[in-house]
C-alpha cells in the first residue's frame, strides 16, 4: 500500500508530551464525537455495564459520557498532564497509584471507581494488567501510532478484546504525500490486514 513518505515517520513520546505541554492539541475535541453517538448501538450491542477501552485517550470527553451511562472506562495515555486535566475539567475526584508491573507507570482512578486511566506507553499494557474489554473506542489511536508500530498495536488491541467485543475505529482519508502525519493515513486494505 502506498502511504507515501509516512511509512518511516516516527513521532516520539517526548514529542507527544511536548504537544500537551505547549497546548498543541488540535486532536482533542471538546464535544462528543458524532460518529460515536451515531454508532453507539454497535459498540454497546444491547449490553450494559461494559468495560470500554480508550487507547491513547488524552482527555477524551466521551470517557465521562460512557462512565455516566454505567460502563467501566479504561484509558491509556503517555501524558500525565492530559489525564489530570480530564479529571479537573469534569470535576471528578480521583486517586493516583503506582502500577507495580510498569516501571514509572501510574494509574489515575475516579473515586467512583468506574474510570481508570493508565499513564504509560500503551505497549507497557497487557491483559494481565488491565484485563479484557467488551468494546474499544479508537478515535485517534491507530492514526497516531507510528506506521512501523501498527502491527504491534493491532496485536495488543486484539489481545485486549473479549470474544464478543466491538471495535469502533475512526481514520482519516487524505493523500499521504501531502501531509506527513500524524494523524497518519491508514488505507482500508491495511486495516483489513491488521484486524481481519
TrEMBL record:
GO terms for molecular function: thiopurine S-methyltransferase activity. Keywords: Cytoplasm, Methyltransferase, S-adenosyl-L-methionine, Transferase. One of its GO terms (biological process) is methylation. S-adenosyl-L-methionine binds at residues 16-27, 56, 77, 121-122, 139. The keyword Cytoplasm applies. Pfam families: TPMT. This is thiopurine S-methyltransferase. It is found in: Cytoplasm.
Amino acid at each position: 500500500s502506498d502511504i507515501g513518505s509516512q511509512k518511516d515517520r516516527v513521532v516520539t513520546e517526548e514529542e507527544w508530551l511536548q504537544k500537551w505541554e505547549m497546548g498543541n492539541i488540535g486532536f482533542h475535541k471538546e464535544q462528543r464525537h458524532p460518529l460515536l453517538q451515531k454508532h453507539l448501538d454497535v459498540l454497546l450491542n444491547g449490553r450494559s455495564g461494559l468495560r470500554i477501552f480508550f487507547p491513547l485517550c488524552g482527555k477524551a470527553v466521551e470517557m465521562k459520557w460512557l462512565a455516566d451511562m454505567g460502563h467501566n472506562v479504561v484509558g491509556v495515555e503517555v501524558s500525565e498532564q492530559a489525564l489530570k486535566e480530564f479529571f479537573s475539567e469534569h470535576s471528578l475526584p480521583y486517586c493516583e497509584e503506582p502500577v507495580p508491573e510498569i516501571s514509572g507507570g501510574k494509574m489515575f482512578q475516579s473515586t467512583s471507581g468506574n474510570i481508570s486511566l493508565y499513564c504509560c506507553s500503551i505497549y507497557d499494557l497487557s491483559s494481565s494488567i488491565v484485563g479484557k474489554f467488551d468494546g474499544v473506542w479508537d478515535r485517534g489511536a491507530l492514526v497516531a501510532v507510528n506506521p512501523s508500530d501498527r502491527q504491534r498495536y493491532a496485536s495488543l488491541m486484539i489481545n485486549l478484546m473479549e470474544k464478543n467485543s466491538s471495535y469502533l475505529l475512526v481514520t482519516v482519508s487524505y493523500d499521504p504525500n501531502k501531509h506527513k502525519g500524524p494523524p497518519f493515513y491508514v488505507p482500508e486494505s491495511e486495516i483489513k490486514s491488521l484486524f481481519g
